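User: Batch of two.

Assistant: Item 1 of 2:
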Amino acid sequence: MSERMAGQEFADVRAILDDLDFPATKEQIVAHGEARDRGSGEVVRLLRALPLGTYDNISQIRSSVPLDPAADDGLGAGDEMRKARSPHDQKVAQHLRSPDA
């Protein structure tokens, strides 16, 4: 997936970084975000999740910020963890299945 950041999150990041000079390192981006973010801190949290490197523009930042992988399939974090815990959760022998399943 090339666009990792959701629409509203991207709008918030773009607003915080609108006067940042590119190219910028992750450290410069995070410091700029910390200085300008007056909200919940969500933007700074997203920026801290950036991989180390130098970014040439806001589009590279957008495609690099990892989001909750469960957001793509509508599952919550707990659901996603349970799903990842056992690859056999859907593979129950016929004789062990409940009659209504």
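Item 2 of 2:
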Amino acid sequence: MKRLLMVCVAVLAVALCSSAFAKDYPHSKKTPEQRVERLTTMLNLTSDQQAKIKDIIIRRDAEMEPLFKSLSEADDKEEQREIKIDILEQHQRYRKELNDVLTDEQEQKYQEFIHSRMQGQKIRKKS
């Protein structure tokens, strides 16, 4: 049951992660610079925060790309589940690193944004 919950959270995290930064360009991947620009506009980031977040995004993309490729190539359900758990763990680490750079107010605003995105995804899936 605990593993099933982790898989569900992983799927949600992957969906959120892949679409949270792709609002304006649903079929193209935004560059790290574009994502930092969007976060800067949303959260009023300082130049120091921008540099740190850009580094986090670049590192995250480099770590996640092989996982997503492995997931798309995996045939076995068990293997897919394990990869999704790895993706979830990476995503959780990414969110923690990002939150460590943000102020409490920025973190709260970012969490509200993530929550609203998740609600929007739920509504679109029901339609």
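The longest helix spans residues 47-73.
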